[in-house]
Amino acid sequence: MEIILKTDIAGLGYKNDIVPVKAGYGRNYLIPQGFAVMATPSNRKVLAENIKQAAHKVEKIRQDAFELAAAIGEMKLTIAAKAGDSGKIFGRVTSIQISEMLKEKGFDVDRKKISFDAEVKMTGDYTATLDLHKEVKHKVAFSVVGE
């Protein structure tokens, strides 16, 4: 079964992508939740027309994502967390904390677009991946230090 995504779905695709899914997943979850529509010939024509009309907007969003990635550059963030003697922090560093640190520096990145290469439970150096656009992924280095 093929569907047209109406929103970005992690691990499946981005808005306006036509993706194959299992019939049950499409009919019982994606379509009722409003995340997708069936990829019928008429829906494909509507999608093509919408893409054609929004082409310049999409290019502007893509360009803004490239500019944001360039502005962030090789920035390194420092996050203070309560830690024990062995370096294990109490709790863990989350995407919310990274988003807030970037906001303090003047960059507005949604927390849902931030993922980690590894779980952050110890002090040390890590990287986070910012999914700014489907063509723009940017890595940000950060250090976790004990307070």
Can you give a write-up of this model?
- The chain is α+β, with helices and mostly antiparallel strands and 147 residues long.
- The chain has two domains: 2-53, Ribosomal Protein L9, domain 1 (3-Layer(aba) Sandwich); 68-146, Roll (Ribosomal Protein L9, domain 2).
- The protein contains four helices and seven strands, in the order ββαβααβαβββ.
- The protein has helices spanning 23-30, 41-53, 55-72, 95-104, and strands at 2-5, 18-20, 36-38, 76-81, 114-116, 124-133, 136-146.
- Strand 5 (114-116) and strand 6 form a beta hairpin.
- The protein is elongated, with a radius of gyration of 19 Å.
- The mean pLDDT is 90.
Instruction: Supply the CATH architecture of the largest domain.
Output: Roll
pLDDT averaged residue by residue: 90
Strand percentage lies at 25-35%
Global morphology? elongated
Main sheet makeup: 4 strands, mixed
Low-confidence stretches: none
- What structural class results from the helix and strand content? alpha+beta
What's the CATH H-level superfamily name of the largest domain? Answer: Ribosomal protein L9, C-terminal domain
Fraction of residues in helices? 25-40%
Helix count? 4
Question: What is the succession of H and E elements?
Answer: EEHEHHEHEEE
The rounded distance between the terminal residues' Cα atoms is 52 Å
Radius of gyration: 19 Å
